[in-house]
Design goal:
The protein is of the alpha/beta class and about 230 residues long. The chain has seven helices and nine strands; from the N terminus they run αβββαβαβββααβαβα. Strands 3-1-2-4-5-6-7-8-9 form a nine-stranded mixed beta sheet. The longest helix has 14 residues. This is 7-carboxy-7-deazaguanine synthase.
């Protein structure tokens, strides 16, 4: 009887659908301005009205974890950011994060906060995006994730209006987020809130948060690969 060649099940499972892998400056979070490799996973269950990466909702290429690690290593980076889309929508994101940490990189994960983060390697800095009412996805917030925050993590609010700001302040106080995470970031939604206005609100209320501006929009105006 002839033997048929089959792909081992383990090999089939060790893949991720990837939109792009590129090297640039980190535009956000506490490592803003540092050279970073970005691994952008394909797919997202949310549809935030301000999303600037809708091109990552579909398409992409199936790539093995070994090949992803090899491509990341080719840049000789110190920092690696796993982003999307929503990276945690693909189960193999979890082993990818672990392997990147094992390789010695400082790893961050940009997640919408709509999916369970409890299995994320504690060495990873989770950047948890709590969705404001102005995002059109506030109902997707998984508040159970807050108990999994550590001083290594960051919480981000994208502010679309003064009402969003007031809502974000209420969540900051309710969950004492500045005590749970290492950083709380308030970011103005591009072309919706003036950064100077947001800065003035933060100063007036003496908030324990960091104003975040998106360097990639300032430097490269959202050109692909940045």
């Amino acid at each position: 009887m002839a033997c048929l060649a089959v792909t081992p099940v383990a090999d089939m499972h060790q893949t991720l659908r990837i939109t792009e892998i590129f090297y640039s400056l980190q535009g956000e979070t506490r490592t803003a301005g540092l050279p970073t490799v970005f691994v952008r996973l394909t797919g997202c269950p949310l549809r935030c009205q301000y999303c600037d990466t809708a091109y990552a909702f579909s398409g992409g290429d199936m790539i093995t974890l070994d090949d992803i690690l090899e491509r990341v290593a080719s840049y000789k980076p110190r920092y690696v950011c796993v982003t999307g889309g929503e990276p945690l929508a693909q189960p193999n994101c979890i082993p990818l994060l672990q392997r990147l940490c094992d390789a010695g990189y400082e790893v961050s994960l940009e997640t919408s906060g709509a999916l369970d983060v409890s299995s994320v390697d504690p060495r990873v800095s989770k950047v948890l995006d709590l969705k404001t009412p102005g995002s059109a996805e506030v109902g997707r917030n998984r508040y159970e994730n807050i108990v999994h925050l550590t001083p290594n993590d960051q919480v981000k609010f994208v502010i679309c209006s003064r009402e969003d700001y007031d809502w974000a302040v209420s969540k900051l106080i309710e969950y004492r987020l500045e005590k749970r995470a290492g950083e709380v970031l308030f970011s103005p939604s591009h072309k919706q809130v003036n950064a100077r206005d947001l800065a003035d609100w933060i100063v007036a209320d003496n908030l324990p948060v960091r104003l975040q501006l998106q360097l990639h929009k300032i430097l490269w105006n959202d050109e692909p690969g940045h």
